Amino acid sequence: MQITFLGATGTVTGSKYLVEAGGRRILIDCGLFQGFKQLRLRNWAALPAAPASIDAVVITHAHLDHSGYLPRLVSQGFGGPIYCTSGTQALCEILLPDSAHLQEEDAKFANKHGFSKHSPARPLYSLADAERCLRRLHPGEIGGTIEPVPGLAVTFHPASHLLGAASLQLCYGPTRVVFSGDLGRPNDAIMAPPAPPAPCDYLVIESTYGDRSHPAMSCEEELLGALRGVLERRGVAILPTFAVGRAQELLIYLARLKQRRAIADDVPIYLDSPMAIEATAIYERLRSQHRLSASECQAMNRVARFVTTSQQSRSVDAQSGPMIVLAASGMATGGRVVHHLKRYAGDPRNLILLSGYQAAGTRGAQLAAGFDHIRIHGEQVPVKAEVLQLHSMSAHADAGELIAWARQLPRAPRAVYVTHGEPQASDTLRQRFERELKWPAFVPDYRDVVELPANDVPH
To answer: What CATH topology corresponds to 219-389?
Structure first.
């Protein structure tokens, strides 16, 4: 077997791993690059492996940094099947068309107002591309095994990170490789803990929080503490949120806070993301795949006023506080949240509350770093609102949890490849594997190729 690292190296975006075995090629994950321009340009560059030469794709979960390049891959000539879990399929069916729609709208907006450096500005892919891509999805179940190409078996194991998220065990002859995907936390509010890693000779593991530990605090109480000040001064709280996963987590915590009167009944909460609204309905429909009860699902669906149309979204911007607005995207890279930031960021009574990881180079990262201006639609928008970041609310395992997960392997792998992290996070985790577990560990670079010799000891 051979792996070429085509993404998630030195960054938490663009996850793509090309696996070659027996003259066949499969792609593990097919994500968008986000953040710095030099990363985003990779989305436009030709893929190092011709899409038509790839036999199949297997997706660990639906987040766009793992699935968002799929329509582009199809538009560039990929004609094979795309395998994932049923939960991932359900979420991709809303995420990918929405991604295409946003790109088309952003290009249209840029052309209308003339602030793009390209003439005309064009989307990376179209809604038609996304729809063609969805027809190639082949859903399986957690715990199930597929054979994307002859002789190579892939088994899905629960990863906890998101509805439908899976770690993958690849078996080719006597050689076994595990891709962690994005690993969730043992105490996630919605998802059950990740399953122990399947036996493997080689481990490819994420390192989003590979250099830090999450604080030991209640997510619900941290959220309340962050909101208390802005509600007391009757301001507006803008929460950039990932439409799938984080939005549902915030809704369940807000529902609990409303139920115990920690947030007053007359404080309106808006969920301004059609995709997040659809995803919330999917969580209720696929309740057997997570830990929320029927009543908790109902509370999650009722705590916010759903904003579906652009006209309704503009009417939210016509209001004053106190109110709470959840809107995508989570790193403020696009979507409706940028319009809300443009409207409310300049008022010191208001709050911008970041609820997730902010990749380097995104508006969210600039806000977290304390920038006093952010660029939106070609304009410099002053940031006078209070900016806070939630630290306890993470869908990613921290460094200690990643090590604890890997420790459950029945025997040491031949090598560990640390990916999906900023450089410091990945290298810090690499050192911990070598120092604490005495396992050989490496941080691959973009387009690195590694050969995986067959295991000479049968399992």
So the answer is: Rossmann fold (3.40.50)
Spatial contact of 376 and 113, defined as CB atoms under 8 Å apart: no
Q: List pLDDT tens digits, range 312-325.
A: 999 999 999 999 99
For residues 38 and 31, give the distance between their C-alpha atoms in angstroms, rounded to a whole number.
16
Q: Is the torsion defined by CA of 333, 339, 342, 345 positive or negative?
A: negative
CA separation, residue 35 to residues 42, 188, 212, 242, 344 (Å): 11, 26, 21, 15, 23
Strand 269-272 vs strand 305-307: parallel, antiparallel, or unpaired?
parallel
**Which sequence spans correspond to the domains of the chain?**
2-212+395-451, 219-389
Helices 86-113 and 274-285: crossing angle, nearest 10°? 170
Question: Rounded to the nearest 10 degrees, what angle do helices 399-407 and 423-432 cross at?
Answer: 40
User: Among candidates 443, 433, 444, 431, which has minimal Cα distance to 407?
Assistant: 433
> Is the distance from CB of 209 to CB of 185 less than 8 angstroms?
no
* Order of strands across the sheet that contains 386-389: 305-307, 269-272, 323-327, 236-240, 351-354, 386-389
The answer to whether the pTM exceeds 0.85 is yes
Least Cα distance to 181 among 31, 291, 76 occurs for: 31
**Tokens standing for 152?**
């190579």
Tell me which CATH code domain 2-212+395-451 carries.
Answer: 3.60.15.10
Interval 398-445: pLDDT, tens? 999 999 999 999 999 999 999 999 999 999 999 999 999 999 999 999
